[in-house]
Amino acid sequence: MECNDYNITRDLERKNLNLNPLQRGGVLPREAREALHDFGDGYSVCDYCSGRLDEIAKPSISGFLEDLSKFIKVDDVRTTHGARESKFIVMHSICEPGDIIVVDGNAHYTTHLAAERAGLEIIEVPNSEYPEFRVDMDVYEETLKNSIDEYGEIKLAVLTHVDGDYGNLTDAKSFGNFCNKLNVPSLLNCAYSMGRLPIDVNGWNIDFVVGSGHKSMAASGPIGVLGMKHEWAETLLKRSPRHTKKEVEMLGCTSRGAPIATLMASLPHVVNRVKNWNEEVELSRSFVANLEEIEGITQLGIKPTNHDLVRFDTPILHEISKIHPRKGFFLYEELKSRNIVGIKRGQTEWFKCSTYGMSKNQRDYIADSFKEIVEKFAK
Ligand SMILES: Cc1ncc(COP(=O)(O)O)c(C=O)c1O
After folding, report:
1. So where does pyridoxal 5'-phosphate get bound (predicted)?
2. Is the pLDDT of residue 12 over 70?
């Protein structure tokens, strides 16, 4: 048989500035690229395994997990295949089909799918809607209390720490505290925060935390993080009666090759970059201010932004698309010709983007490019 040409090349990141929020936090530092090369073979971390992934000493996965738990200030931690798998593991371990959970109105679709896969019913905490789409902790607490009154028991409360639509940062500490007071286990989804900004799971009184290595921790995908208060370890990390070393929810072992090797190699880099989070936010705010100098471009979500992921309403770009011969494709093509990618082809009414990790000059160049494009075509 002759195989098709799969077109496995990727010049996007090397040649262009990529604004896709999904891509910015997963860029590998040099040391992780080297690990990727060394650990590219299938079960590459399993040469010296004596039965459990988290106990492997060479490479030191056990040492890495110890550092990771200190980094996010949590008692017990495991790697999974992604934030979504981590959420599912929690739901599957502590809930029964038919149970009810409460979830914030900005939750990622993978939170919903994890709940559906576990057979759970979802009660949603509404966000504040246009233009902020804020998840208010008073509204969350009230919804949780009402749900307990109505249904008796709520098995889990889930909060998206930073959502993927507006980049709104929520108040994790307040969430952890009222969940604790109401006796409802809490899960914080840190896919867009762990690896970008400081996380303090124990300080925030959170039961479960999930993170995404490929989204925010400079790792090759797929790899996720699952952290928990020690009191949950017996439930979540229960062992198989037949294969007594193996943890059932991990199906014995999770990531066992390049994804975990790159996550490990990147941890020192990630620990360091988190220290610069305030500067990142400042740079993100000034990028927003620059773009908002264009009449017809407005940031949505909480203002000023507290994150690098930002969403803009862009009626001016939509107006241009109505008169431009390339219609909605003009924006993508104009940006691409300036080596800027990551805004979806054909999209002009709004877009979300991130400049995480870019220099001030690069961010200014991007904002100037938008200004130039609007000046070129706006009537
Ligand atoms: C808020 C949020 N949670 C979870 C995920 C999924 O992460 P993963 O790919 O690690 O499952 C995403 C991905 O976009 C996300 O934005």
Report:
1. 83-84, 189, 212-214
2. no
- When divided into structural domains, the chain yields a total of 2
Q: Is residue 347 assigned to a domain?
A: yes
How much is the pLDDT for 13?
Answer: 62
The CATH number assigned to the domain holding 106 equals 3.40.640.10
Q: Are residues 49 and 170 in the same domain?
A: yes
State whether 286 and 265 are in the same domain: no
Q: Is 212 assigned a ligand-binding role in the annotation?
A: yes
Residue carrying structure tokens 């199906």: 251
Structural domain harbouring 132: 39-273
- Contact status, residue 209 vs residue 201, Cβ threshold 8 Å: yes
What mean pLDDT comes out for the span 44-51?
95
For residue 86, give the ligand 1 atom closest to its CA.
11
The residue-averaged pLDDT of 331-337 equals: 96
Quick check: CB of 191 below 6 Å from ligand 1?
Answer: yes
Q: Examine the domain organization and report whether 255 and 321 are in the same domain.
A: no
Span 200-226, pLDDT tens digits:
999 999 999 999 999 999 999 999 999
134-147 residue pLDDT tens:
999 999 999 999 99
Report pLDDT digits (tens) over 64-90: 999 999 999 999 999 999 999 999 999
**Interface pTM (ipTM) of the complex?**
0.98
Q: How far is the CA of 155 from the centre of ligand 1 (A)?
A: 22
Asked if 280 and 243 sit in the same domain, the reply is no
Domain annotation covers residue 175: yes
**Does the annotation flag 83 for ligand binding?**
yes
Q: Is 110 within the bounds of a domain?
A: yes
Examine the domain organization and report whether 323 and 250 are in the same domain: no
What confidence score (pLDDT) does residue 14 get? 67
